[in-house]
Design a protein that fits this description.
mainly alpha; Glutaredoxin; Glutathione S-transferase Yfyf (Class Pi), Chain A, domain 2; 2 domains; 4-stranded mixed beta sheet; disordered N terminus; binds glutathione
C-alpha cells in the first residue's frame, strides 16, 4: 500500500521535506501583531516528532509551561494526518491507563488539519507539527520548529522571572557557532535519518546511511574534544555541551534526534552501522546527561509515543506494524 510518506519521495528515490508555510513571529516589541502575552499562544505537538519535541523542551527550559498551553496529537499518523484522541481514549486516559495524546483544548477539533484550514481555508501543504496557534487572532503564527524555538527563547522574557529570562539558548557570542553547527546537523543528522529511512532506492539509502554515520563521528569528536578540554581546565562538568559550557539550542536540536536513534532510527530507518550506546561514548554521555540531569529533557521524552508512531504509522516500511521491544532499556542509566 502506498502511503502519504511515499508521495514525498522523488523519482530519484530521495526524500524531500517540504518547506514550512506559516512564518510569522511572536514579538516582545510593543504593538506587534503577535505580541508576547501570557495565555495567548498554544502549541500543537506530537510527542513522537523530533521537530515538535524541540519546542516542548524549550517551553520547559524557559519556564513557559504556565504561559503557553499544549495539546498532544495521538501517536498514530494516518492518511488523514494527525488526530486528537477520541472519546474512548479520553475515558481511558482519565482512568490513567493510557496516555496516547490529548483532545484539542482550544478548537475542539478532531484532526490537526482542521487547525490548518481554520487558519487558511486554501492551505494545500502538509499538516505538520509543531503548530504555534494564536488564540486571540485565531490563526497559526508558525509551523516551523526552528523559529518557534527562537521565539520561546527570546520573546517572552518580560513575562518571566529572572531565573528563566536569563536563560539564553541562542546567546549572541555563540550565534555564529550555533548557526554553523545547526546547518550541518540539520541536513546530515536530524533530516539525515529521514533521508536514510525513506530512501526508496538502494543506492540512495547506501549514500545517506554512510553520511549519517560520518556526521555522528564528527559530533563524537567534537564532544570528546570538549570533555577533554574541560577536564584539562577547570571541571569536566563545565564542558559537557556541544559548544562547551553552555546549553544552547544546538543541544536541544540534536537531542531530539539522538534520543530516538537507538530505539527507532537504528532499526526502523536502517541506520544500523553503529549504535549510540555501544559506539559513541561521548555522544551517549552527553545524551544521558541531558536526559537524566537537566529538567526539560526527560519529561518531554515519551518512548511509547516515539516507538509506536514510527513503527505503526510508516506501513510502507513496517507493513505489519509490529513494534520491536528493544533495545532495552530505551536509554541507559546515568552511570
Ligand atoms: N519544518 C517542520 C517539519 C515538521 C515535520 O515534518 N513534522 C512531521 C512529524 S515528525 C509531521 O507533522 N508530519 C505529518 C505529515 O507530513 O503528514 C518543522 O521543523 O517544524
Amino acid at each position: 500500500m502506498v502511503t502519504d510518506t511515499l508521495k514525498w519521495a522523488q523519482p530519484t528515490g530521495e526524500f524531500k521535506r517540504q518547506v514550512s508555510s506559516f512564518r510569522d513571529f511572536v514579538s516582545a516589541k510593543p504593538g506587534a501583531k503577535f505580541a508576547a502575552e501570557a495565555g495567548r499562544y498554544h502549541l500543537y505537538v506530537s510527542l513522537a516528532c523530533p521537530w515538535a519535541h524541540r519546542t516542548l523542551i524549550a517551553r520547559v527550559l524557559k519556564g513557559l509551561t504556565q504561559i503557553i498551553s499544549v495539546s498532544v496529537v495521538h501517536w498514530h499518523l494516518d492518511q488523514n494526518g494527525w488526530r486528537f484522541i477520541n472519546d474512548e481514549e479520553l475515558a481511558e486516559a482519565k482512568k490513567g491507563s493510557t496516555e496516547y495524546g490529548t483532545v484539542d483544548h482550544v478548537n475542539s477539533f478532531k484532526r490537526l488539519k482542521e487547525v490548518y484550514f481554520k487558519a487558511d481555508p486554501d492551505y494545500s501543504g502538509r499538516f505538520t507539527v509543531p503548530v504555534l496557534w494564536d488564540k486571540k487572532l485565531e490563526t497559526i503564527v508558525s509551523n516551523e520548529s526552528s523559529e518557534i524555538l527562537r521565539m520561546l527563547n527570546s520573546e517572552f522574557n518580560e513575562l518571566l522571572p529572572k531565573q528563566y529570562s536569563e536563560i539564553d539558548l541562542y546567546p549572541s557570542k555563540l550565534q555564529a557557532e550555533i548557526d554553523e553547527l545547526n546547518g550541518w546537523v540539520y541536513d546530515n543528522v536530524n533530516n539525515g535519518v529521514y533521508k536514510t529511512g525513506f530512501a526508496t532506492k538502494q543506492e540512495v539509502y547506501d549514500k545517506e546511511v554512510v553520511n549519517v554515520f560520518k556526521h555522528l563521528d564528527k559530533l563524537e569528536d567534537l564532544l570528546k574534544k570538549n570533555y577533554t578540554e574541560g577536564s584539562g581546565k577547570d571541571s569536566e562538568k563545565n564542558y559537557q555541551f556541544l559548544l562547551g559550557n553552555q546549553l544552547t539550542e544546538a543541544d536541544v536540536r540534536l537531542y531530539t534526534t539522538i534520543v530516538r536513534f537507538d530505539p527507532v532510527y537504528h532499526q526502523h530507518f536502517k541506520c544500523n552501522i553503529r549504535m549510540i550506546r555501544h559506539d559513541y561514548p561521548h555522544l551517549d554521555k552527553w545524551l544521558r546527561t541531558l536526559y537524566w540531569k537537566i529538567s526539560g529533557f526527560k519529561e518531554t521524552t515519551d518512548f511509547e509515543h516515539i516507538k509506536y508512531h514510527y513503527t505503526k504509522s510508516h506501513i510502507q516500511i513496517n507493513p505489519l506494524s509490529i513494534t520491536p521491544l528493544g533495545p532495552l532499556p530505551n536509554i541507559l542509566p546515568l552511570e
